[in-house]
Here is the input.
Amino acid sequence: MTKRTCKICSSTEILKYCVQQNLVYDCCDSCFYCEKRPEYTSVDADYVASQAMYYENPDLDPFLEPSSVLDEKMKYRINLAAAYLKENDRVIEIGPGRGSFLAWLRSEGYSCTACEQSVVLTKELRDKGFDVIEGEFERLNFKSQYNLVFSFHIIEHVTSPLAHLEQAFKVTRPGGHLVLATPNSASWQQRLLPLLSANFDTAHLHVFSKRSLKLLGEKSGWIHVHDFTFENVSGWLRLFSKLFRRIKGENESMTAGKYANLGATSGSMNKLILLFSFISGPFRRIQAAVGGGSEVFIVLRKPGNGMGE
Ligand SMILES: [Zn+2]
Here is the structure.
């Protein structure tokens, strides 16, 4: 049997997590990069299947979450983006979902573009008046370059994370930045209870830590600027809902989003989450500060002029 090697740091210390049938990950014990073993014939087939299941299905809303959770996430992204945005910047967001972050950019007066692969979402975004380049980001030929590229929770889904970072590098102007967020493979949830971690999800072909993202970023030409983790209120709630589903014996793929939907549509559930959010605030801030938050953010800069070089 050939020994598995980490694609990011070349370590041979690989742990195997069998989360459930057909959901198996190889996780590097050194840089924490986790790679899903293809459920279908190949990584490409896996990608096509999950895109179709989640983003081309009008009966399923993968973005539906309680407003308390969404508000907290949005506030965090806006504060971070504001630190890097400059007047007259041209901005692109890869995979903007329903466009809530794009709407904020537009309201602030930035010239913003979206890149979206889903036919359903592209139509919805265009109906909202957004400029959308339709297609798979990594395979497109872009005519323009941007000062800032935002990629929130996309890299864990793509077939080649390296191609994602290389393409982001190509579309960024010299001196410009990439701001990227993804689930954190070094989160407390994954390290304490890996088999219940929301990071291991059919649609997640990869899970990254700060270290593995930094290594991959540098491999694709970027200069590492900053990285940190954030613990959103949904981090622990997702783990509890997974535990609840296991106890009830529910099929996890079939009931994906069930409890998030419940929280999104029930006012009293939303109030409960707000209360949990308030009480858990100090604990979550400590968790994030020591790098254990369930979301990792990285800011990368493209070498060149524009930043005083
Ligand atoms: Zn590694």
